[in-house]
Description:
There is one protein chain. By secondary structure, the protein is an alpha/beta fold. It is about 45% helix and about 15% strand. The protein has a single domain, classed as Rossmann fold (3-Layer(aba) Sandwich). It has a three-stranded parallel sheet with strand order 1-4-5. Helix 2 runs antiparallel to helix 3 and helix 4 packs across helix 5. The mean pLDDT is about 95.
Amino acid sequence: MGWIIIYFFDTYSIIELIRGNKSYEKYEEQEIITGILNLTELYWIFLNKYNRKTADYWAKKLSFNIVNFTKIECIEATRYRHSRKKDDLSFVDCLGYILSIKNNIKFLTGDKHFEGLDNVEFVR
């Protein structure tokens, strides 16, 4: 019996699941563990790209396990973002990465800025 890997889904990976990206098929049965800001970002993207009805649909349809954070993780994420200033990473992405490390779960993303980093499963 193999190990079960638990993932922190960043917004990119959630969107790819919704889009039916074949590279994300193996994650379809995984519990979606993410941050409240990722859920907010996802809603924002659907609201802007489509409409409120679509945004509401996906917010209700998907089941999320939300990882909480404190000001300590916010500060660490801000420091991490600052250390990678040239990459212009979003705060939400940096917070997700920090939360994944703090919770000992892999950060699942297709964001090229995280490719090759420790604790990252990079999938395009």
